[in-house]
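Please go through the protein record below and see whether the fold suits the sequence. Record follows.
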Amino acid sequence: MAFLLSQIQTFFESGLLHRLVAVAGVWVLVYVLVRYLDHWIVALDKQTEGIDIDSRELKTLDRLLDYALIAVGVIATLSILNLTSLLYSVMTAAGVIGIVIGFAVKDVAANFISGVFILLDRPFVVGDSIRVGEYSGRVQRVRLRSTEIATFEGPVVTMPNQILATTPVINYTVNAVRRAKITVSLLGDADLEQAVDAMRTVAEAEERRVKDRDVQVFISDVREYVIDLTLQCYFPNDVWFAAQSDLRRAVVEEFKRRGLELAVPVRKNLYPPPLPVNADERANSL
């Protein structure tokens, strides 16, 4: 009996009981996180309006996070139990395996992580008109690994999320209005006041124009025999394309009505002067 009591006292004094309690607490926490992580991911997906992530990708994300939590639990357990040598061995093996896997799935992992940041930051949502590099169009679908953009020309571009995360993205839908810019070229002797008044009159008569933004008409460039006039005004995003096209046509018709001529490209051919021919050479040629 005395021996048993001494062993119990030694057990408590060694601190092993506290470590076992800590280990139990770690795995209870891991269990709770693994159990409810999928519910939190689904709730986060529902809160991100305009981004519809495929359910299979959400399950893949949940599975990867579960593995990461279990790995953290194993490392924490070894550390609490003072199994330093075993911990170092496990971390070394995990590091080597991680490097090998990292090189194998580097691009996939980068796209996946970038998709998570897009999900959280929401630089664009489904339906937004964006431009990325040489591609511009409407966002059709957002996945964790890639994003589909329906270009204005028709084809659908599937772009890896890593590119979207490292390339400037121009979002035309974030602001409610968009600037229309029209440039016309006039001959150098044209009546500039008439041209400016014609462009301003046409723009101010456009009903779809945003009224609280001023119409601007200015000389944007002066070249040989040609003067460029630029008109700037703003339209709502949903009518910008059609309104800008109608505005161009209205400007041309107003110019015709007022007798203003648009400049056309002129090509100059420069030839070297003819070489002088003396009398003897002229006689020989005859």
